[in-house]
Amino acid sequence: KSFLNHTAYLSCFFPNSQKTDIKDLRVFWQKGTDEVVHEVYHGQEKHDNLSPKYINRTKMDMDKWTLQLLNAGIMDEGQYTCIIQHRVKGSPKVIHRSECLLHIISNYSQPEIALLYTGEQMAARWPNKYLNLSCSSSGGYPEPKQMTWLISHENTTHELTGHTDVSQDAVTKLYNVTSKLNIPVPTNTLTNISCLLHLGEQLGSLVSVPLGI
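^ CD86 protein, sequence as received from the core. Prediction below:
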């Protein structure tokens, strides 16, 4: 995993147990089946075969056998393969091959709750006895799992699901999410309303500042 616009570290997992000299090896990384990301040929970086979008964006740490991919973007997500060939008499022989999957993460903004109403409704002091609420969070990646609402009063908390709309920006590929909820106006008891953005098992969740009614 790598944060958006940060450096991604992709490991070759090559033990080099034979202590082979780098000058006898060809190391190359590719994305998918046809894009060459980085190539080290007998100790020297080679740029002839690189896919244009990776030029000047990669560095290889030959001590750790790790590729640094600079300014990682969402378009860089995917599977990368590290292939190491040993130069022996005759044709080069593949002595190591490994794969890793790159996922990009961009932090969502803290969810924010807003009350939706018209001036008329406000003047009439909730004539329909319902609260119209929305909760929004933006600029995140990957797509969130869901957004839920927590309604707490006295010692009980209920989790509700409203109508959730998820949209993706065509240019940045980042996601915005908004959930809307209609609930009866709480009476006679302090009620705290929060919304929770679920990002998946490994990324956890984000919670809004509670709204007290």
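The longest strand covers residues 130-140.
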